[in-house]
UniProtKB/TrEMBL annotation:
Residues 21-419 form the Major facilitator superfamily (MFS) profile domain. Its main location: membrane. The chain crosses the membrane at residues 24-47, 59-80, 92-109, 152-174, 180-200, 232-257, 269-291, 303-321, 327-353, 365-391, 397-415. The keyword Nuclease does not apply. GO terms for molecular function: transmembrane transporter activity. Keywords: Membrane, Transmembrane, Transmembrane helix. It is a multi-pass membrane protein. GO terms for cellular component: membrane. It is found in: Membrane. This is MFS transporter. The keyword Membrane applies.
Length: 419
């Protein structure tokens, strides 16, 4: 167990490093904006318009089916990117092609008039976007020295967390202009990814030794023994638990505002955008400061643990005060905690990867990404079950989220290879 290694001469310095940092920040900002805007606002609105009575169950089904395919696509795409040989490098082809197919499918979603056609096109978009995401994440392990990954992760984390908020704001205000909203997200991600590949030329990989795929060995490689690699297993568990809590609330936030807080449909769209703006300020500030402090003190675990605990506290606020006051508190505190967690989590993940002479970082980081995707399957289903069992009492979702997020903090503590 140790830090993911890449040849030292692949690590970037000076203007090239800064350009790649900023490009990663922009790309992840737009990708997370797409996810939050589409999953948190546009799709829930579209699904509710198609069938108001079944909206909660249909949304849970959409999340579950999407996440099954995403969970499979992410580690497989990461493993295949490790083996990709081209003059554009190992990761760039996946970023360019994934963004193209994903954006075309996403724009098609805006024209769908049935739940099933909507789901098919969205699943296609999700597979494409999740195929390019591990390639972008792995560039942090490929191109940055381990001791500088905290600040890189902080900058990228600020972009990601800012994107999650900005996407909600944009989608909230454009919810009534569906085609424009979907087109804006799809076009922005496509242009950004193509520009990313063009201005951050990856070293060619076509001269590297080729790794033929032996399918039995290929699929066995996705099992990483918790006994042999306990830090990897604890990091996976921590990520899994925190996203089980966070996704349960995030997926149903629009319906929480309508059915728990009591806002009308139009007011809830505006409210989710306004709450997101409060979160944005806290997210970006927390991410940048946490990333800088993490590199300064060369510590990762304390920031991830504290971020998890703060997130749990945020989810208690709407339980104490089930009104907009509680939601404003939630929005601010979740921004601080999630910004701290996200900014350091990525750096920590690159430092718990199993050591490999074969260059399997893309596959291993893809596996860790499934700790985000699997909760997207389970948490909406869990939330839907809780709502059915407790007569649409949305407070049960917050209670479950608190338990999961607090449990996540305890899974970070046993990690030994990262301080």
């Amino acid at each position: 167990m140790g830090t993911a290694k890449a040849p030292a001469d692949n690590y970037l310095l000076g203007p090239q490093r800064m350009r790649l940092q900023l490009s990663l920040m922009v790309n992840f900002f737009l990708l997370m904006a797409l996810y939050s805007g589409v999953l948190g606002v546009l799709l829930p609105n579209q699904i509710a318009e198609l069938d108001e009575g079944s909206k909660a169950n249909n949304l849970a089904l959409l999340f579950a089916v999407t996440s099954i395919f995403s969970t499979l696509a992410t580690p497989i795409a990461g493993a295949l990117s490790d083996r990709t040989r081209s003059r554009w490098g190992k990761r760039s082809p996946w970023i360019a092609i994934g963004s193209l197919f994903g954006s075309l499918a996403l724009f098609g979603v805006s024209w769908m008039t049935s739940f099933w056609s909507l789901m098919v096109l969205w699943v296609m978009a999700a597979i494409a976007y999740n195929s390019m995401q591990p390639a972008m994440t792995t560039l942090i392990a490929d191109r940055f020295a381990p001791e500088s990954r905290g600040s890189v992760s902080g900058l990228v984390g600020a972009g990601m967390t800012g994107g999650l908020t900005a996407g909600t704001v944009v989608a909230g205000y454009l919810a009534g202009e569906r085609v424009l909203a979907y087109g804006l997200f799809a076009g922005a991600v496509l242009v950004s990814c193509l520009a990313f590949v063009a201005i951050n030329r990856e070293p060619a990989s076509d001269a590297m030794p080729r790794r033929p795929i032996v399918w039995g060995e290929f699929f066995r490689g996705f099992w990483i023994s918790p006994k042999k690699h306990p830090d990897f297993a604890w990091a996976f568990a921590s990520r899994f638990l925190i996203y089980m809590g966070y996704q349960a609330v995030a997926a149903y936030l629009l319906y929480i505002l309508r059915d728990y807080i009591g806002l009308a449909d139009e007011a809830s769209n505006i409210a989710i955008a306004n709450l997101a703006m409060v979160t944005l300020v806290c997210l970006v500030t927390s991410s940048l400061i946490s990333g800088w402090l993490s590199d300064k003190f060369q510590r990762r675990k304390p920031f991830v643990i504290l971020g998890s605990l703060i997130m749990g506290c945020a989810m208690i606020a709407p339980l104490i005060s089930p009104d907009m006051g509680g939601m404003w508190t939630y929005a601010a505190v979740i921004g601080v905690g999630y910004g701290m967690f996200m900014s350091i989590d990525m750096a920590l993940m690159t430092q718990v990867l199993p050591e490999s002479a074969l260059g399997d970082e893309g596959k291993d980081l893809g596996i860790l990404t499934t700790a985000v995707n699997i909760p997207q399957i389970l948490s909406p289903i869990m939330a839907a079950i809780l709502l059915n069992l407790f007569a649409n009492d949305y407070s049960t979702i917050f209670w479950a989220a608190v338990i999961f997020v607090f449990a996540s903090a305890f899974c970070v503590m046993p990690i030994r290879s990262v301080r």
